[in-house]
Amino acid sequence: MWKRAVFAKNLRLTQPFFEKAGVKQPKYGEVLRNLLCDAFDFVFRHPRPSDPLPILEEMKKGGIFLTAHYGNHELFGFRLAESGVPLNASVQEQKPKFFDIWLQKKRTINGKCFTKKIEPEHLIDFIDNGGLFGLIADQNFKKLPPHSIREKCESSFLGVKVRCNPLPAFILEHRPQTSVFCGYFGQIKKIPSENFYTHYHSWLENLILENPAKWYGWFHNRFG
Hints:
Layout: H1 4-21, H2 28-45, H3 56-59, E1 63-67, H4 73-82, E2 87-90, H5 97-106, E3 108-109, E4 112-113, H6 123-128, E5 132-136, E6 154-157, E7 160-163, H7 167-174, E8 180-184, E9 187-191, H8 196-210
Parallel strand pairs: 1-5, 1-8, 2-5
Antiparallel strand pairs: 3-4, 6-7, 8-9
């Protein structure tokens, strides 16, 4: 069945972390049901966050936004762009092609797609112009980052060593005053730019321990 092997592998690798925390790992059916409900909301209902997000005004000034496969991340990106945040999120092309085209249309607000690809050489210009660069940061990054930022792209997540996307570290290497935010649907916080991946993973681990079945990274090869 769909991604059961990946799911089982992730359960096995993270089991010591959950045992130490005294929290039960989720069941496959629980996570799949939540994913389908969030997908339905994104396509048909488009609910709004229940509470206001006071940090939104600061995000409109630009920076780096780290989110995760937790809750309805697709709908959250839509709501951020709709609220006037200058978001451009990095995403992977989906298969089949017609699904990717449909998804990009769903990610379009007032004629502008908030997931239009930015080449790395243009990232600094984007930040300098007040843009907010977003990415789903709980994904596995297979390539070896440049040596100058390699250590900043290594972290620990759910008790497992992980390699992270180097683009935020690349931005901070050139623009160290850039603000860094993390969040999911209904919650955003600002985190220190120093050791930002450590702070991000600590925040995400706490969320997952509160509700492990709301993290859809169980279906991804996050741990290599």
